């Protein structure tokens, strides 16, 4: 079989896998974002019970910075659509970092995706979905907003327009450190 045929076959199988995952997802998650305003999509969350070692290692150099942890895959069209805006937010906000978790994806596909778009986010591979399961991610894309102490504060399920000014303001408000009372 030629390389082109193999590539086309892999792409077709990846698309079918994405459709199968969507069909198997609970209906409440499939339609979870329809009819909701962008700012209504920020859900408060508790910290996960475990932070897998690979994710912990990736977060370590980002100490004292708020972090967007985006669970995504190259075969997920909404994930692909929102990634440039997420990377752009990371680029313009000094106190905010983007950490992507490539769920059930191949390293070569991830590398090609970012190279084609000239993006260079921090990527953690999660081919066996260990991190996704530990953080109860059942829908792609899913993005967690971590404060500067790396405690998850909010989650957004589904694609979001991260370029929207109100969304950016909300993100920066949610990840900002609380104001210390002025000394008397």
From TrEMBL:
Q: Which domain of life is it from?
A: Bacteria
**Gene3D superfamilies from the UniProt entry:** Glutaredoxin
Thioredoxin domain sequence ranges = 36-176
**Alphabetical UniProt keywords:** Redox-active center, Signal
For this UniProt entry, which residues form the secretion signal?
1-23
Q: Does the keyword Magnesium apply?
A: no
Pfam families found in the cross-reference section? AhpC-TSA (PF00578)
Name listed for the protein in its UniProt record: Redoxin domain-containing protein
Naturally occurring in which organism (per UniProt):
Aromatoleum buckelii
């Amino acid at each position: 079989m030629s390389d082109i045929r193999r590539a086309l076959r892999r792409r077709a199988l990846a698309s079918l896998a994405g459709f199968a995952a969507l069909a198997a997802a609970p209906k409440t998650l499939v339609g979870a974002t329809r009819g909701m305003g962008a700012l209504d999509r920020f859900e408060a969350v508790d910290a996960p019970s475990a932070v897998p070692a690979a994710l912990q290692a990736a977060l370590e150099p980002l100490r004292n910075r708020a972090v967007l942890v985006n669970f995504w895959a190259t075969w997920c069209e909404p994930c692909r659509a929102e990634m440039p805006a997420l990377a752009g937010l990371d680029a313009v906000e000094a106190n905010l970092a983007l950490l992507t978790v490539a769920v059930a994806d191949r390293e070569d596909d991830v590398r090609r995706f970012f190279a084609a778009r000239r993006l260079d986010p921090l990527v953690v591979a999660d081919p066996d979905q260990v991190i996704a399961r530990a953080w109860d991610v059942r829908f792609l894309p899913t993005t967690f907003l971590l404060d500067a102490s790396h405690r998850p504060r909010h989650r957004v399920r589904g694609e979001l327009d991260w370029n929207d000014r109100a969304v950016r303001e909300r993100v920066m408000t949610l990840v900002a450190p609380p104001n210390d009372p002025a000394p008397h």
